[in-house]
Amino acid sequence: MYQTRTDKTTDETDTFPSFDADDDISRVQANREPQFTLSKCLDAVMVMGNSHLVMTRNNKLAIIASHCQESHFLYPFKLWKSGDGHGDDNPSTSGDGKYELLSVANDIMAEEIKILMSRTEVKGNQTDTLLAGSLAKALCCILFIKMLTGQEIKSRILVIKAADDCALQYMNFMNVIFAAQKQSILIDACVLDSDSGLLQQACDITGGLYLMIPQKIALAQYLLWVFLPDSDQRSQLVLPPPVHVDYRAACFCHRNLIEIGYVCSVCLSIFCNFSPICTTCETAFKIPLPQMVKAKKKKLKPST
Amino acid sequence: NHKAPPSGCLNHLQCKNLHEYLKELSPTILDKLYNHPATCLAVYRELPPLAKNYVMRMLFLDQPLPQAALALWVKKDSQKDHDECVSVLSGLRLCHTQQLQGGLQGNILNPIFKDNLRIALLGGGRAWADQGDSLGPDRHARDVESLDKYALERWEVILHFMVGSPSAAVSQDLSQLLIQAGLMRAEVGDAPCITSAGFQFLLLDTASQLWYFTLQYLNTAQTRGMDLVEILSFLFQLSFSTLGRDYSVEGMSESLLTFLQHLREFGLVFQRKRKSRRYYPTRLAITLSAGTTANSSSATGVVPGTGDSGFIVVETNYRLYAYTSILLVIALVALFSECLYRFPNVVVAQVTRESVQQAIANGITAQQILHFLRTRAHPVMLKQNPVLPPTITDQIRLWELERDRLQFTEGVLYNQFLSQADFEVLRDRAQGMGCLVWQNVTHRVMVVSPQGHSEVKRFWKRQKSHT
């Protein structure tokens, strides 16, 4: 069974959404809903992307697939360099009633996912995806568009996630979230399988929406109903309420979630066990020990 | 020394937007129109944002939704927006009410609209037009720049013709259209000359001009024997095409081909020769649907003759500097200001009371003058907020209001009554008929509206013969 996971991120900006879709669909397929495959998920994403592009003339879209080995832009690929994406060498024709812009976009997306899948080698039971990396790419993409057009655009990132959280990415993830918050970019999350604490935090901090989908087969409908409206309309519509967020931090040494820990007073890094030298900033701590007992040399725990 | 305004009221240019236009069409025509994905897309794009979300939500539902459920979609304090959305959707016949099982009222999208919007979004159905691939690559392919240049040239010829430049020549059809649109007036045997509505038209931005023009053309379509649905669908299809790509004329009917030739003259499409099998939509065609939105405060598309940026600087001492050498633009500026100096690249003008009131006498409003100045404002001006100095905007409006101190109403004067009783009888009669305009009891003078004059006269004659 094909076990690779791919996350797809989509940026939305004025609205420019980027979808991050996490394709752990194959695992889900084995477990619960056999009808829900990767291609169905992609179809739902395409419908969402098309609906977004159709909304207004100025809307732009980017789709990133997040994989265990890389994050890859599914759309657009090289269109930005040529301007509006017109007059390129091989314009495909829709041949049917689809709006031309959309059929070009969909063809590119299908092409790119094929390329991505064909060059991925399945190595054992990998369950992690480079979600933080994809999010970072999405942020760069948004910034690029902002510089290109020179205007302020409203953007948001939608993450469609099937894989589990990866504790190793905690640091990078939090950094990305705070960067997004600074840039007033919303992060929405559509979670397919199990709740993700990281994404809940992301949505809470940036002001986006978090939703766990009960019926994966209706993914397209959920996307259109909940995640399509932009921030202006969200204030008018009734949408799923925010969830209770688990704000526990992960320690820097093991990446476990802890409630009580040790904090370095210089760089504020968090450790679950005491160590006399902070591994991040290398400050040595003077510990007042009782006189009688000789200071035991504490072994420095190797940081991961 | 104010000239008396011409008799009759001056018509101010009414620019309808797409939705207003569609609401006037009959339901059968609307349904036929919605049978094309491009039209559905164009109408969808013009909806208010909340309505767009409603349409998207209902797009994939096959069953009607109870009205109560629909009302739950919005928060409590956005109820007004919800009602507005529903009225917009039903006014355009996008949303129908249907009886549900159990007697409740439900809402469902117009099935024709729903199917075609789905096609536009997801695919399936017939292709909009032959994409021109069957013709192979074009040996005389045009790039985007040359298309833009061509479009602007053609559009400017029309504007030049309206202003009366001798060099501009347009086809009989086009001048006929301009006359029918009320933008020009032709005396028998003379060349057409511009009307006050024409002046107002000239001051609009390109997108609004295009749209107004197109609407006028559509109104005359029936008389030309063209199918309104066909040409409107084609127009929307054009507005969604990709700039720089060629399309084939395969499968287009006779009337559509004639329409294409007219579009060629307006500068909306480019065709190398009349008999060419392929055509290129220009930027004007693509921004056509953008011109239907009411607020065109941001200059979308290209301002004729000047590239993308504005060129007018207005100072607080009423001086105006127009950095242009285009004759048409200079003529437009001269409509409401006094040109003082002309240099190769700049025209210096002064906005004076006389010049503004002259313009207003020609039917231009202060609002149009200010809109013109704002949309052509130089980037340096755009940096300040507000863009135009408040002194100038206020003063131009005040000059306009000066003319409103006096209001002229036509009427017929009745005076020299022999007795107070006669006067009062007639006055009461006129008042009862609702055509009394003014009276002065002490002088026994009254003014009756022209419409009521014949009635009043008859009544008076009867009175006189009785007494």
From TrEMBL, chain A:
Where found in the cell?
Answer: Nucleus
What is this protein's record name? General transcription factor IIH subunit 3
Q: Which family does it belong to?
A: Belongs to the TFB4 family.
Q: Which domain of life is it from?
A: Eukaryota
Annotated TM spans = none
Matching Pfam families: Tfb4 (PF03850)
- For region Disordered, the annotated ranges are 1-24
Q: Does the keyword Zinc-finger apply?
A: yes
Oligomeric and partner information: Part of a TFIID-containing RNA polymerase II pre-initiation complex that is composed of TBP and at least GTF2A1, GTF2A2, GTF2E1, GTF2E2, GTF2F1, GTF2H2, GTF2H3, GTF2H4, GTF2H5, GTF2B, TCEA1, ERCC2, ERCC3, TAF1, TAF2, TAF3, TAF4, TAF5, TAF6, TAF7, TAF8, TAF9, TAF10, TAF11, TAF12 and TAF13. Component of the 7-subunit TFIIH core complex composed of XPB/ERCC3, XPD/ERCC2, GTF2H1, GTF2H2, GTF2H3, GTF2H4 and GTF2H5, which is active in NER.
Q: Name one GO biological process term.
A: regulation of DNA-templated transcription
Gene from which this protein is expressed: GTF2H3
TrEMBL record, chain B:
GO MF terms here are: ATPase activator activity; double-stranded DNA binding
The UniProt entry's GO biological process terms, in alphabetical order, are: nucleotide-excision repair; transcription by RNA polymerase II
* Gene Ontology CC annotation, any one: transcription factor TFIIH holo complex
Q: Could you name the domain of life of the organism this protein comes from? A: Eukaryota
Q: Which residues form the Transcription factor Tfb2 C-terminal domain?
A: 394-461
**Which UniProt keywords are present, listed alphabetically?**
DNA damage, DNA repair, Nucleus, Transcription, Transcription regulation
Indicate where this protein resides in the cell: Nucleus
Q: Which InterPro entries match?
A: Tfb2_C, TFIIH_p52/Tfb2
Q: Pfam families from the entry?
A: Tfb2, Tfb2_C
Q: Which NCBIfam families match?
A: tfb2
Function recorded in the entry: Component of the general transcription and DNA repair factor IIH (TFIIH) core complex which is involved in general and transcription-coupled nucleotide excision repair (NER) of damaged DNA. Component of the general transcription and DNA repair factor IIH (TFIIH) core complex, which is involved in general and transcription-coupled nucleotide excision repair (NER) of damaged DNA and, when complexed to CAK, in RNA transcription by RNA polymerase II. In NER, TFIIH acts by opening DNA around the lesion to allow the excision of the damaged oligonucleotide and its replacement by a new DNA fragment. In transcription, TFIIH has an essential role in transcription initiation.
Quaternary structure, per UniProt, is:
Component of the 7-subunit TFIIH core complex composed of XPB/ERCC3, XPD/ERCC2, GTF2H1, GTF2H2, GTF2H3, GTF2H4 and GTF2H5, which is active in NER. The core complex associates with the 3-subunit CDK-activating kinase (CAK) module composed of CCNH/cyclin H, CDK7 and MNAT1 to form the 10-subunit holoenzyme (holo-TFIIH) active in transcription.
Q: Which family does it belong to?
A: Belongs to the TFB2 family.
Q: What is this protein called?
A: General transcription factor IIH subunit 4
